[in-house]
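>> received
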Amino acid sequence: MTTQSTAAVKDTLTTGAGVRTEGTTALSGGATGADQPPAHRGRTSIADLVVVKVAGIAAREIPGVHDMGGGLSCTIGAVRDRVPGGRPNVGRGVKVEVGERQTAVDLDLVVEYGFPITDVARDVRENVIAAVERITGLEVVEVNITVNDVRLPDDEEPSAGAEARVE
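>> returned
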């Protein structure tokens, strides 16, 4: 994340009236009392993990995104995702920094060969921003994308029937 936007997100972490606990973000002021409208009675908090999952799902919706993560995490995730009963980790390859009203997202992608990387990155960025802002109500200040690999058509993937080397 860039220094300027990271500083802006960190400012929201340490200032304002909301109370921040580790891994959650308060979105509403938490007014109390019968004189307040019902929609304003109480506090809404969103865990960082929620933003990670929303961003991960939104990124994977874009054609040309083969996988997310890089290096060892991508390899281990690919093996684990193919183990019977293994659930895909939608947060793999996603890092977020969340403030009271803003968030910044970093994504690691593996792109399918033949898809223009700049177009895939643009589409991922737009979809992630739209999804995170719509679902969480947080303003997305930036989405940084690193393309770690390109999936070639002849790259072999473990078949569904193949035994995993690790248990």
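>> The longest strand covers residues 139-151.
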